[in-house]
Amino acid sequence: MEKETARIEGFSDGVFAIAITLLVLDLRIPATENNEPQTLVHSLLTQWPSFLAFSLSFFSIFIMWVNHHKMFKQIYRRNTLLMFANGLILFLATCISYPTALLARYYGTPSATAAVAVYTGLFVLINLAFNLLWSTASRNRKLLRPAISDAAVRKIGRNYQYGLPVHLSAFLLSFCWAGGALILCVALWTYWAFTSGRLDLPDEKPVNVP
Amino acid sequence: MEKETARIEGFSDGVFAIAITLLVLDLRIPATENNEPQTLVHSLLTQWPSFLAFSLSFFSIFIMWVNHHKMFKQIYRRNTLLMFANGLILFLATCISYPTALLARYYGTPSATAAVAVYTGLFVLINLAFNLLWSTASRNRKLLRPAISDAAVRKIGRNYQYGLPVHLSAFLLSFCWAGGALILCVALWTYWAFTSGRLDLPDEKPVNVP
Amino acid sequence: MEKETARIEGFSDGVFAIAITLLVLDLRIPATENNEPQTLVHSLLTQWPSFLAFSLSFFSIFIMWVNHHKMFKQIYRRNTLLMFANGLILFLATCISYPTALLARYYGTPSATAAVAVYTGLFVLINLAFNLLWSTASRNRKLLRPAISDAAVRKIGRNYQYGLPVHLSAFLLSFCWAGGALILCVALWTYWAFTSGRLDLPDEKPVNVP
Amino acid sequence: MEKETARIEGFSDGVFAIAITLLVLDLRIPATENNEPQTLVHSLLTQWPSFLAFSLSFFSIFIMWVNHHKMFKQIYRRNTLLMFANGLILFLATCISYPTALLARYYGTPSATAAVAVYTGLFVLINLAFNLLWSTASRNRKLLRPAISDAAVRKIGRNYQYGLPVHLSAFLLSFCWAGGALILCVALWTYWAFTSGRLDLPDEKPVNVP
């Protein structure tokens, strides 16, 4: 059966690719008045929160794209709710550059808590949107790949079950230990990076040789 | 029959994806001098017109993309007029970030009327461009999907018939009640969101199983 | 025969789509201190050179994309020179936003001549790059669509033969009449818009019905 | 056998296309107060380091895309490591705009060494990432195109073997002769431009005529 979702995936890939690349616009070179090498090197080193925030957000959007890709490999048809759950994911992915800039500006200041709380809070919303997408798709089997097995559907759901509780914990932790909240997020994203290969279901491998 | 319009759709999807993602560049973090948490939280809260304008415009471009998608599922061939009607839609979609920034800056000030009038006025033009696209395609049946029925063509036309009068009303309303004009637009876009599923015509469903 | 150029076209479409959309970033809202409606409306009206420059450049990149599309419909294979002629076109298309910003800033000032000369000068370079692309492709028939006729190759070449002399004339004219140089460019682009349909060669129409 | 990597290539093309186009945002028009033509022409000429940095980086990303394209023509399957080697390439490609802006700002000042060292240092990292990608793919033959020969795999490896040593030399050279380091990079990229055609393997040519 032909996939109805090809143009949705293409549009989503476009939005993810742009959102991930626009992050670099917040890496601004130091605005030093003098041209001395020591000043430049020193200014570059004091920009570390910007590089950290850029790297974190790039990695998080890349993982979101991998997860999105894994889910849409199993989604073959769409309905209105699925279209808008996907639209919500794209909206929130586009937003990431805003708390990234907050993090770059305020990490290491007394306002770090507020910045990290906004940052991790956005990921709580992103997880809710991904859960809405996958529950919409998996509740209505007609939207999924025809030959998919129950075990495969459950396997995908299980892989993402830690998303919401971990991000929620990171959000709460941000109020007492900002750095710890970021470490928790990175730990989850790394887990997803390592387990993403396990989601390649054996029954989806194409068998026709050219 | 092969679709002649594949590269037009790909290019249009690219422009929509970029236009929708660039909106976030106008969400600038507060430029506060001090680093106190209260100052940051207060500055974030006073930015609400920016968040509102960003969300509205993101949603409106997403709906435009869905509508564009629905129309091009029925368009198989192109002529010069269709190419330029589509180019006009892309031009106006790209422009949306400008009145969005106006809205973010002036909503809640004595200039709200002017900002909302420019914003809703752009949507009047966008509707004229969409009407030009669909009337070009539906007047010349050779441009449409070969097996399409008259009922299907009329069904699509009917779904968008409210676009021009509602946006025109919002434009006129903006001069006496700026907030009401925005509510009117959101109501129309929500109607389109809910009815977009109805436009999946039964006779376009692929029947060949892999 | 399979097209070897699919990924080149995809990448080129991406660059054109981004270049055309980034133009809007130079449409900045007026930076007025007070919030009076009269001030806002007045500031908007004095921005007309920005709107003019944006519209001109959007239209010119759209026409470039249409022309690029027409040529690549006939190009099936690639060699190193063709790859880099295409790279040069993308480089120059990306550059357009720079003289567009110059035009927006200096049109209507004593520096209009310099701004329009840079603007039209860029289009002379773009034409040289397009000529390099098409002469590379048409000199080496193995790069073109297998069934293409000599008449079709000449027809495409003829359609673009005015490009270089007209843009060169516009560049020279810019030194004595800046506005006239822009009018000359728009006249050529409009000619291309109207004749682009004529380049759909009858022998490329697919004949297999689904 | 169907390629599993189509969506990865599409996403990568998107990121390359955006990263290459965003470079133009650092070409800012001169911020002169007066509107005299001589001032404008003089300001344009003093911006030459910006034009040089923009051209260099555009050319380098274009070559990276060509190389990426050549490698992925031979890669048919993916595993987790390959996904993340590719993610690392995209991350570093996105970063290029930052040292480009440094180069534009500090080339010709006493800080040129630091700017060129950061610039060439990034290309050392990019080469390590490309080596990781190709060694991951070529060590595990199941990831490659089924019919690929050992000679073809070695040929691709050989073409990129100069990448790491030349960029490392450029990085070291930057500390004593900043201009020389850039010339070394351009020489390598030009070599890759001229040899990229040689990587079209004879056994990958499609033979089925429509």
Word description of this protein:
Chains A, B, C, D: It holds the Pfam family TMEM175. Chains A, B, C, D: InterPro entries: TMEM175-like. Chains A, B, C, D: The chain crosses the membrane at residues 12-31, 51-68, 80-100, 112-134, 164-192. The structure is a homotetramer of 210-residue chains. Chain A is mostly helical and 210 residues long. Chain A has one domain (6-25, 38-199). In chain A, 69% of the residues lie in helices and 0% in strands. Chain A has helices at 6-22, 37-46, 48-72, 80-95, 97-106, 112-139, 150-159, 163-173, 178-195. The longest helix of chain A is centred in the middle third of the chain and has 28 residues, at 112-139. The interface between B and C is large, with 34 and 38 residues.
Distance between the termini of chain A: 19 Å
Helix content of chain A: 55-70%
SSE string of chain A, helices as H and strands as E: HHHHHHHHH
In terms of quaternary structure, what is this?
A: homotetramer
Largest interface: A-B, 34 and 38 residues
Shape, principal axes of CA atoms of chain A: elongated
DSSP, total strands of chain A: 0
In percent terms, what proportion of residues of chain A is strand? under 5%
- State the secondary-structure class of chain A: mainly alpha
How many separate domains make up the residues of chain A? 1
What ranges of chain A have pLDDT less than 50 throughout 5 or more consecutive residues?
Answer: 203-210
